[in-house]
Specification:
By secondary structure, the protein is of the alpha/beta class. The protein has helices at residues 14-28, 34-50, 56-71, 81-97, 111-124, 168-176, 191-195, 204-218, 223-232, 235-252, 262-267, and strands at 75-79, 101-104, 129-130, 138-139, 149-150, 160-164, 180-184, 198-200. It has a single domain, classed as Rossmann fold (3-Layer(aba) Sandwich). α5 links the parallel β2 (101-104) and β3. It is globular, with a radius of gyration of 19 Å. The chain binds ligand PTJ.
């Protein structure tokens, strides 16, 4: 694919600009929805407040998520446009190492977008892609949005669904159906974060590789140990820790702690 903008490696915000470019490129191929660009901007703002790193409560949530995935009977990764644009290879790897089904599920559903996302996932190495076209033949009850359309072999029959960058309605609907929901959302205050079983407050590009490593590290652990660990987890408490951490960071940050460019130092 043609690069739109050559970002110099030395740019202080290189990584952030690289992610933006990935989204814009995949917006142009139809993978990312227009609102996906807005969602990314909102995510960036929260990421800034979190220090653009995986904070300790996010690490705890990732460990719980990995344990839950390993003990689940039928775990499924729900893929939307932003996830496909930012982490298609990691979706392929996680589905392989954790034996998870992969289903396309879109808020702004169109056949063109489904096919574009299917192509990106296929090129990244996902062998079986559920939820495309007529395969999404069933509905999640009490859900009005296009996300209600699901594949009976995937999300409908799953006991656990991983939902990165989700909207709150479906998380609540999946919980009502008795499923375990793992959300990845940079906003600890979102309805998705609050209603998920486990909310990982972090950037999907940092979360996915760490989650894969964690699954690999614990896959041989005794199931009773993993069950006990998961049972002890309190999602609300974990989210409160994230919010406290953001608040402390804001109070501790001083402008004088920010490194000034040389020419401004000289001017002071
Ligand atoms: O591809 P579609 O049609 O399914 O649409 C996908 C979007 C993301 C547009 C749709 O699900 C949507 O509108 O989501 P929301 O309600 O905007 O919520 C997205 C959430 O993801 C927000 O809380 C953002 O803070 C968060 N977010 C954005 N970028 C990231 C993120 N969380 C983790 N990692 C990111 N990189």
């Amino acid at each position: 694919m043609k690069r739109r903008l050559a970002i110099p490696l030395t740019h202080p915000r290189y990584e952030s600009l690289r992610l933006r470019e990935m989204l814009v490129e995949q917006y142009e191929t139809g993978v990312v929805a227009t609102a996906g660009l807005i969602a990314h901007g909102r995510g960036e703002a929260f990421d800034y407040l979190l220090g653009e790193t995986l904070i300790p409560p996010a690490m705890s949530a990732i460990k719980m998520a990995a344990a839950s995935i390993v003990i689940a009977e039928h775990p499924v990764i729900s893929v939307n446009g932003n996830l496909a644009a930012l982490a298609a290879r990691e979706v392929a790897e996680l589905s392989r190492v954790a034996d998870m089904d992969v289903e396309v599920n879109l808020f702004y559903r169109s056949q063109d977008r489904e096919l574009a996302i299917k192509q990106v996932l296929g090129e990244a190495g996902v062998k079986r892609i559920l939820g495309v076209g007529n395969d999404a033949s069933k509905q999640i009850p009490e859900l009005g949005s296009e996300r209600r359309r699901v594949d009976p072999r995937g999300i409908l029959s799953a006991d656990l669904v991983l939902v990165p960058l989700e909207d709150g309605d479906r998380t609540e609907a999946l919980r009502r159906m008795g499923k375990k929901v793992i959300a990845v959302d940079l906003n600890p205050l979102s309805r998705t974060s609050v209603s998920a079983s486990i909310s990982i407050v972090g950037n999907i590009v940092l979360v996915m590789p760490t989650l894969i490593d964690e699954v690999k590290a614990i896959e041989q652990s005794p199931r009773e140990k993993l069950n006990a660990m998961v049972d002890r987890f309190d999602n609300r408490k974990n989210l409160e820790e994230c919010i406290r951490l953001i608040a402390h960071r804001l109070l501790d940050l001083r402008l004088q702690d920010q490194k000034l460019p040389k020419y401004l130092e000289a001017a002071d």
